[in-house]
Every structure is written in C-alpha cells, then in structure tokens.
Amino acid sequence: MNYKKLAERLLPGEYPSPEFYEAKYPPRNLPKGAEVTRLAPSPTGFIHLGNLFAAIANERIAHRSGGLLYLRIEDTDLKRKVDGAVEAVINALKYFDIAFDEGAEIGGDETYAPWYQRQRAEIYRAFVKKLIEEGRAYPCFCTEEELTALREEQTAKKEITGYYGKYAKCRNLSEEEIYAALDAGKPFVIRLKSLGDPENKLKVRDAVKGEITVTENDQDVVILKSDGIPTYHFAHAVDDHFMRTTLVIRGEEWLASLPIHLELFDALGFPRPRYGHNCSLMKQDGETRRKLSKRKDPELSLEFYRKEGYYPRAVKVYMLTLLNSNFEEWYLKNPDAGLNEFPFKVEKMSKSGALFDLDKLNDISKNELSKLSEGEMFAFLKEWAEEFGSAAQKGYFADEEKMLRVLALCMGVGGKKRRKDFTTASQAMEFVKYFFERPAEHDAYRVENGVKCAILRAFIGRYAAADDAQTWFSKVKEIAAENGFAAEMKDYKAEPDRYRGSVADVAEVLRIATTGKANTPDLWTIQQILGGEETLARLTEELK
Ligand code: GLU
Fold this sequence. Notes:
Oligomer: single chain
Bound molecules: glutamic acid
Number of domains: 4
Strand content: 5-15%
Largest sheet: 3 strands, parallel
Number of strands: 15
Structural class: mainly alpha
CATH superfamily of the largest domain: HUPs
C-alpha cells in the first residue's frame, strides 16, 4: 500500500511538518522540576466538584513547583456543547480563585495558544496525515448502522465491544477497495491502527495511585471524525504535548481511557506526560458509599455552591482536607496561614474514594466565616445578594451602617468568643431578615397568651430606647417579679415551684415578639439597632 499517496488523497495539501510544530511550540523555559499542569474541561454546561477537586490539585502542584497551570477548552464534540458553558466554567473557577497562568479567556503567554481545540484543527490534521503516511492510521467507511450491528453482535457473544482485531473490518481493506469507496464519495473517519495486544499488561506509575496495571489498548479508536474534527483522545494527546504538559491530574473516570492515550503518545512519537488519577468523590448513602451523582446530588454541581453562597475559601479548605491527608492537622496548627503556604504533595493525595460530607463542609464554613470582620462579611454578602438575592435582600445593604451593626452583633465581633451562626450567604441573609423586615411568623410562645400580653404591655409602658443595657435589664427583671416569675435565675433554681418561670422566660417573650425567634443574639442590642419606634411597633403588633 502506498500510504503517502493515500494520506494525500484523504487529507490533500501541504501541512506543516512535526519539526515546524516542535519549533513553534518549544519546550517551556522553566526551572527543573517545574510542573506544567492543565485543566481541560469540555463545555457541556456542567462543571462539578470533581473538576474543582482536580483544579485545586493541579493549581497547587504547578505553583508549588514553580511551574504553571493553563486552561484548555476541549470543544471537539459539538453535540455536547452548550451555549454559555465556557463562561460558566470560567466564572465557577474564578469564584474559587483558581489561579490560571494562561489559557482560554485568560490570556497569558500566547506561544502555546490557541486554547480552544476547535481553533487547532490544522495541527491535529497534520499529525493525522503523518500517521496515515506511516501506516498507523486508516480510513474507515463503516456506517452507523454497521457499527450498531457490530456492537449488538459483540454484546450477544459477550465479547468486548468496539472496533478492534478481527472486527476492525476497514483495517484490512485493499488499496482498490479504499479508492473505490473514496471515488464513490463515501464518508469516512480516520482510525488509529492499534498495535496493542490485550494479553499484554502494562505497568504504569500513576502519580496519585502509584504503580498500576492496565491492559494494552487494541481498539482502533477514531482519531479524526468525518467532519475533519479530531476526537478528544487524539486532540488531547497533541495538545498535552505541544502545550508541554508535564503532569495530568484528572478524575479516575479517565483511567479506562489511559491505554488509548498511552498508545496515542507512542504512535505520535511524543514523550508521555505523567498521569495522576484522582479518586472519586463519594457520598455516604445509608449503609453504602456511592459516587456523587449528577441526578441525585445537587451538591455535585459547582453552581450549587455559588447559589447557596458558600464562602469560597471554606470550600477550598474542605477540598484540601480531602485532597491531602495531612492538611487538616497542618491547618489546625496554622489557622491563619494562607492556604498556599500548605506544602501540598501529590504523594499525599488519597488513592481511593474520598468521602464528601456536606455537614463537614458546613462546619468548616461556619468556622471560616467566623474569622471575617463585619466589613468583609458585608462585602461577601452584598456580592452574593446582588447576584442571587431577592429585591428585599438587595435592599438590606442600603443602610450600610445598620448592616454593619447587625453583622457585628450576629458574628459576636468584640465579644469573648465569636458566634458561628453563619454557614452560607443565603442562610446568613435569612438569619438577619428580622432586622430589616417585620417577622411574618413567630416561634411559639411558651407562656399563655394572657401572660404574654401582660408582659408585653408592661414592657411597652416602661420601654425607653435611650436606656442602657443595665437599665433595660432591670426593667425586665421588675416585669418578671410583678408577673410571678423569678427575677433572679438562682432563686428560680432554688425553688422552681414558687414561680411561673424565670426572667429568661420573660425575656423570651420579648425576644419572640421583637424578632419572631426564640434564639437570637443580645436582645437589647437588637432593639437598639431596630430603634425605639420600630421596637414598640413590633411589640404592640403582638398584643393580640
Ligand atoms: N475534556 C475532558 C473532560 O471533559 C478532560 C479529560 C482529561 O483531563 O484528559 O473532563
């Protein structure tokens, strides 16, 4: 077979040589040991926690080694492409502050651009043509129907499905048959002529999992589709080589494709990058552990974290906790250190499934948010509300001074211990609602209605907004005593039968009437923030 002639017929015209591309995309000028890593999402519109998990690992490894991280958009599969998906990817990663050095919509050193695979078609075709010339790739004229029939036959025989070995029909077409099909205008794809044998097991060193054994590839995978666009497998090999990637950390769902990728690198004559396959994120579901699922678990999508208003650093802390087994201990010792100071190590990445637990993330979130100043919290909540909040919530920020007082109180700023009531922005906004809107509902009062009204009436009659905390509290005690409640807690504890309850129950009535809630931060301060008029209006409304 004259492969050169065939290559010219299949991909006519002059293509640049491999040497041209080697010179155009030269090895990167980086110090020894510097890792070049990448994130290579497909714009399917769904960016998930696994992507973030890999992004953080790739980012940390690159930057700790003095290397760099780039973003490549793998958009060869138009069927899966969704409008706006690239922006969604970029925004999601920006929210979590993933520092890319170059890439799609990021820019940076143009030497290795473009970063959209669709804009690199010519490079791929040049290498497909080279493989045809070398007899390592061939045209396949099989129709969809033929391939479906083949799959059904293999399934019925309980054999591995695919285009390989004796099933790779077009692999053995004669020169005459190929030209006859081409002359008849039959559409074709280009397949790799695999030299692999599934009897051969390959030992490879996975950067995360250590030594693993995989079966050699024998699938004649499609490398160029009938529209002249390569498949992801082929494009990624060419790109990882010419973008000079040294280490690929990606999800373990790609492990099954690894043999194909290794053969492609070898066939192309490119040195292989190192691969590390990240364990999947698992969820405890009753007795069993299963992978987080797109259908069942909203928390798999990164959109979820933005909509709920998770504090990005908290999510990052949790991801690092799952990624490196010694992170948690380090963070306990260095609670105020920048996360980038943590000595992240590929070797410390966990080899089998990491258990993702939303409750644990919520605990971390409370802790992280409790470290903010009220000003930082203001900025965080405002930004969230502007994007996701209701019109009413957006309005909460109009009076900046009031919001700052609310936040300082709710966070316990200046107190002995910080309060940890805030988990996410959406929850925090719900939490502070009563400062800005009259409560539509009230927690249940524990005292009878008549007693409640007596307490409210007495308080309304005596309330003065100018009272300091001490005066305010002595009035509450007076009201308690007048209504059969113990003014002092210790008296109540000593003789509970003598009283209706204690001053705490009286304060609770006032608290529920003012805020709708039985549990709040300091009530005197809340009433100060609300102001005398609003406080009295709320209490009066509850006289019913
Ligand atoms: N484009 C693939 C994805 O959608 C990337 C696989 C890889 O990292 O090699 O995740």
